[in-house]
Design goal:
The protein is an all-alpha fold and 171 residues long. It is built from 9 helices and no strands. Helix 3 runs antiparallel to helix 4 (45-69), helix 4 packs antiparallel against helix 5 and helix 7 packs antiparallel against helix 8 (141-153). The longest helix is centred in the middle third of the chain and has 25 residues, at 45-69. The radius of gyration is 16 Å and the shape is globular.
Length: 171
């Protein structure tokens, strides 16, 4: 599922989501999250919003519980909430015909990158993948170069190199 998303193989991604939806597990964050992405790619924004709301409802009690223990234990769930918010912004980006509104959303995404902890490669990569739903890598070269640099600085030179090679392939 993640590999299909990373590679932008949306047909494969949709097939994986269909399998995930048929699994017997009642409700899970992942099922709702990935279903929302598939619905956005299919331009079914109301269905996507319903999956986002379901995912948010599933996170709420878990975050409340973990925040009572410590912020660091709840951090990954807070990142999940941020991803849900970004999916909602992707929906707005898709639906609006207003170029000023799109520029505002893009500027907001850039500002988030500026304040995101530089050692949190997973969150940075997820944000880039969410944005890839509406933006091509060629439109986001600077962000991908920043990510490659962060990966390299974090000791993950292979990931940084892969990002750079994938950018080269797009041009």
């Amino acid at each position: 599922l993640e590999a299909s998303w990373n590679l932008g193989e949306w047909a494969d991604f949709s097939r994986h989501v269909q399998v995930l939806r048929t699994l017997k597990c009642p409700s899970s964050f992942d099922k709702s999250f990935y279903s929302a992405i598939a619905e956005i790619k299919s331009r079914r924004f109301s269905a996507a919003q319903a999956h986002i709301e379901k995912a948010r409802q599933l996170l709420d009690p878990r975050i409340t519980s973990l925040l009572g223990e410590s912020y660091s234990r709840a951090y990954s769930l807070i990142q999940d909430l941020q991803s849900l918010k970004e999916l909602e912004e992707v929906i707005t980006f898709h639906k609006t015909g207003n170029e000023q509104r799109r520029k505002h959303i893009y500027k907001l995404w850039q500002q988030r990158f500026a304040v995101q902890p530089s050692d949190d490669l997973k969150a940075y990569q997820r944000s880039l993948k969410i944005r890839s739903i509406v933006m091509d890598r060629t439109e986001e070269v600077e962000s991908h170069l920043q990510f490659a640099q962060l990966a390299r600085n974090s000791g993950n030179a292979a990931l940084g190199s892969n990002v750079l090679w994938s950018l080269l392939e797009d041009f």
